[in-house]
Amino acid sequence: MRLTVLGTSTPYPRPGNACSGYLLQSDAAPGERPTSVWIDAGTGTLAELQRHLPPADLDAIWISHRHADHTADLLVAYYALRFAERRAEHPIPLIGPEGLLERMAGFLGPNSVDELPRVFEVQEMSGWGEREVGGLRLEWGPVQHGVPAFGLAVSDGSTRFAYSGDSAPCTSLEELAEGAGTLLVEAGYDEAPPRGDAPAHHTPEDAGRTASAAQVSRLLLTHIAETVTMAAAVTRASTHFSGETVAVAPGDVLAV
Known about the structure:
Metallo-beta-lactamase, Chain A
């Protein structure tokens, strides 16, 4: 599989860096079309997505949770898929938390209520679940973020990739990532919150511990706190994880 990093910024886009978003594609023989899944649609990621494929060529969209830095570009994706010169032949599967479509309709207006199902075929996540999308098998489970949030694992039959979404360290994420060659984890905290406050993100050290507990081969760090440099995040995570550790940047394309 191939992962293209569309954006990593938190909690709002920065010049040259959109918010969270990734394009995951299956391997394909020359001349064949890969299966393409847009993972999280943070602000600015739709424009970056179009550097790699037209929105109409997406096979699915998967959304980890409803926060704007992971979903805002769904609103303009609706326009792109409804009004573009070349439109999708059928509604694109949109897999996300409960209530996502209603929230979009609140922004897009009452006329969108009937039109949204013509653009998106919505599947709501409320617990553990799975779905086949082209040549990929998507599996998800709930993670800890203070709102309904999910982690993701994707398999093409030979390799497995996992993604934390936004999440504090939790057993369910470790279970979801078991068997993955590559784990993409956000490191949105520089320091853990004060004792007694419920955590909602990983620190770099937490990311290393999660990767070790899941026994993955490679750790990718993303959505890193603005007070932490990429090099420092890698160093800090590596104190708890002995495998390859990389901080990803917009435009990176990695085999996973």
